[in-house]
Amino acid sequence: xxxxxxxxxxxxxxxxxxxxxxxxxxxxxxxxxxxxxxxxxxxxxxxxxxxxxxxxxxxxxxxxxxxxxxxxxxxxxxxxxxxxxxxxxxxxxxxxxxxxxxxxxxxxxxxxxxxxxxxxxxxxxxxxxxxxxxxxxxxxxxxxxxxxxxxxxxxxxxxxxxxxxxxxxxxxxxxxxxxxxxxxxxxxxxxxxxxxxxxxxxxxxxxxxxxxxxxxxxxxxxxxxxxxxxxxxxxxxxxxxxxxxxxxxxxxxxxxxxxxxxxxxxxxxxxxxxxxxxxxxxxxxxxxxxxxxxxxxxxxxxxxxxxxxxxxxxxxxxxxxxxxxxxxxxxxxxxxxxxxxxxxxxxxxxxxxxxxxxxxxxxxxxxxxxxxxxxxxxxxxxxxxxxxxxxxxxxxxxxxxxxxxxxxxxxxxxxxxxxxxxxxxxxxxxxxxxxxxxxxxxxxxxxxxxxxxxxxxxxxxxxxxxxxxxxxxxxxxxxxxxxxxxxxxxxxxxxxxxxxxxxxxxxxxxxxxxxxxxxxxxxxxxxxxxxxxxxxxxxxxxxxxxxxxxxxxxxxxxxxxxxxxxxxxxxxxxxxxxxxxxxxxxxxxxxxxxxxxxxxxxxxxxxxxxxxxxxxxxxxxxxxxxxxxxxxxxxxxxxxxxxxxxxxxxxxxxxxxxxxxxxxxxxxxxxxxxxxxxxxxx
Length: 682
Hints:
By secondary structure, the protein is α/β, with parallel strands linked by helices. Helix content is 44%, strand content 18%. It contains 28 helices and 21 strands. Strand 17, helix 23 and strand 18 form a beta-alpha-beta unit. Keywords: Glycosyltransferase, Transferase. It comes from Favolaschia claudopus. This is Uracil phosphoribosyltransferase.
């Protein structure tokens, strides 16, 4: 017969604000499955300290609150029982909030203790308070024969004898209803084997699964990836960042996975993301718990099958292989399962040159959301100083695309592309400043914003890497042309009436300004201990690797500015060099950074000669050209400095200003003559 579904109350507003809401984990399962025994075991083990977890038997709290204890409670009418249950769960929340502990509570969702009465139905005992208090629910997946055995052998409680079929029916109904209620109330739900180590693992994961701690772990993983690429000799100034599903591949690995797990049933991921959880961190964490509920062997099997069903788009494969040849690293940042994407790249022969940051199961410790992708792109730009090109296909990728230095919207087949993306993309382009291209698959398919292609031009892959490398090289050219301080400093330097010592001082001031404002953006800073004026020690900062830096004054015009630079890096070696050969191997031995300082860089030819000299002795040392003025033509594509920057990622330029004026001074207009009062000699 059909069994009526129990009804459950709509959750009331929480008594405690979400900002300070404690973590309260419900451990659920049918009566007699072993919840209380499990919690007693965990409480008495050495795995949890008294200061961080408290284990609570829900019925014990009721007994302590209700006058007359549990016997009196059982005699109450249902409305009164309901009120006392709400008081009990609120009491638990209050106690956890006061103590700061994680609460682990053994509770009941429904009772279904008879299978002989055709009119009987499960009796729901879930309350509004439960919906407001619980943050996580772990449902014990205990085999029905074991439940029957435990109920029969329980000497403390007399329970009706139930068949294995009824226990299974009870479990299925309870689990389905509890999962639905949890989704509606933004509670993380998972099933778990009843072993203590499995539950302990879940509790530990829950304790450390805050959004802030997740971001920290993801950023740490990104830093590891960048270091791995550097060790492998990949470029450090550029990074290609790809979404996975429907971007690198045409299909959706998550959908394929759950079609294998539950053929013919609804996709549980769709259920999660269409619930009130939306696409929040909590939703993606819930997805991770879904994967973790599967036993490891089954999980691995489905992952292997998914990998066998998908392939990277041929055009993407060509791009990634060319990027590998040109030492441009690539990173897949996806909300999907990490092991699946690692295996996809391994199958394509890209495992060494393309890395993955993704989630999967909770034990994988990473959760990737739309905001996670965006924050990783920003970290690549600000911390690792990378030029980032991002590829994505959906609204979840828009924050990442907007943050990237260059964005490519991947547009798939019309029948499978994201339907919500069109309007969101238009809004991002028109109102949020997104500048992007679109890569349409297959050729001839209808592009996005088809009537506004000027807003989203079609991507051309033929010269893509060339333009990306040039874009990356331009990030290593820093200047202050339009800043107030630069305008004040350059006034004295350009004044024909200022010469000799006064002009030398102006150049030295400019050198110090560049070394303290722009140079750290290329070289970075490091902490340095120093005595505090009030006694004791404190922390200051200096240019990173000061003792392993050499300041090279390109004679003679660069000498005054070089002295200003040297003032900012006093521990550096100072070298005068009129010709490249005057820079000896001894000057470069055991050095990390060379600062080539000249007052003016015109064509860049002399700088190129010095760079070649340095590279013949040290192929990897960082070189920074520091100058008062650099001609724009030298930096352009085809210009001497422009080509050096493209070919050598360890070269940067720091300038007070970039000038369109190609005039080369003579006599009274020559900077060197003005600096040393020798204008009459030319």
